[in-house]
Amino acid sequence: MKAKAAILFTVGQKLDIREVEVEPPRSGEVMIRMAAAGICHSDLHVMTGHLVAQLPAILGHEGSGIVAEVGPGVTNVKPGDQVIRLWRLSCGICEYCSNGRPALCAEGLQIRMTGRLLDGTTRFKLDGMEIKHFAGVSSFSEYSVIPAKAVVKIPDDFPLDKATLLGCGVITGVGAVFNAARVKPGSSVAVFGSGGVGINVIQGAAIAGAEKIIAVDLLPNKLQFAKQFGATHTINAKEMNPVEVIRSLTGGRGVDYAFEVIGLPATIRQAYDCLCRRGIAVVVGVTPMTTEVSVPIMTLVFEERALTGSIYGSSRPQIDIPMLINLYRAGKLKLDELLTGRYPLSQINEAYEALERGEGLRSIATF
Ligand code: COD
Ligand code: ZN
Hints:
It is a single chain. By secondary structure, this protein is of the alpha/beta class. The protein has 2 domains: about 1-155 and about 335-365, Medium-chain alcohol dehydrogenases, catalytic domain (Quinone Oxidoreductase, Chain A, domain 1), CATH 3.90.180.10; about 175-310, 3-Layer(aba) Sandwich (Rossmann fold), CATH 3.40.50. About 30% of the residues lie in helices and about 25% in strands. Strands 3, 5, 6, 9, 10, 17 and 18 form a 7-stranded mixed beta sheet that branches. Helix 4 (about 160-180) crosses helix 5 and helix 4 crosses helix 10. Bound molecules: dephospho coenzyme A (COD) and zinc ion. Dephospho coenzyme A binds near residues 168 and 198.
């Protein structure tokens, strides 16, 4: 099967749209005809070399589509089913899967680090050359093959463009609030970074019933979006020191929860510095892999503050995605307002240029 796909050949280059050969699914795999793929900053981090991936690869880790074909032994989905693709495969039986932390499963890490599916091979070829699967998803391809365990079936009448956003931005942001921090009603929250993922931390905090939600960004348009998604206060960190303003907004106390959704050591430290005693800072953003972050022992121990990370919203996608669909249908989760741009796959580099300029909230590539 031939498919148009966006390939990253070398760090620092643009994505190249090429026609690749997609092999049929093998045992335990499915082939998806993609409907839409999300434009997330994490793919941009791969293009700039900030995040490491095996290349050449078809990028994209957020996506939805329709099952086109299933390999031997697949029973959880059938051709014609609408699905969301997960960027972290999980085996379902290891210690972490059993404990409700499937994003920590070693199977998913193996695919992420090698760019190959579980049998050690890829299903994409370009003129006989092996093309890697980014995050086991490679959603920037008209067709792609993925382990059947890494899809979530969604209702037949659910719009696939909105569904796409659930697969990374929404579950990562809302999940960090619900699962990692477990934000309590009436609490105070600061969110550093109000982009495509940060805005979902903000709406997650609003759904969780936080009383004060303070959004921090450098761009006025993002802070405007933050208010629309439930922020009670906004801070432009270009104009003022966010830690000082957060302290003064909380009467000197600090916030119960702070989220870093940018990926910079300085803002991770700011998130920690604006906590109250026993406050929790959750880091969602990733800095270059060798970075270290330090915090003062005085506040860590004597104030019992916590600094932790959250990967993929610390979620259980087979439970959390249906829950997010229900929240959307109940009018509580904003997806229509989140989707601010659509680009055909041929214009995917323009979509990333718009992301770099800070336009909109979340865009999708369409097929
Ligand atoms: N202070 C305040 N805000 C800032 C600063 C700063 N110093 N610098 C940048 N920002 C704002 C930007 O203006 C922008 O609004 C926002 O931070 C970032 O938003 P986006 O839309 O560009 O990026 P997202 O939301 O698509 O992605 C954010 C991540 C943190 C997820 C991403 O950057 C990242 O670190 N990814 C790696 C982690 C990972 O792989 N996660 C899983 C897949 S997403
Ligand atoms: Zn993402």
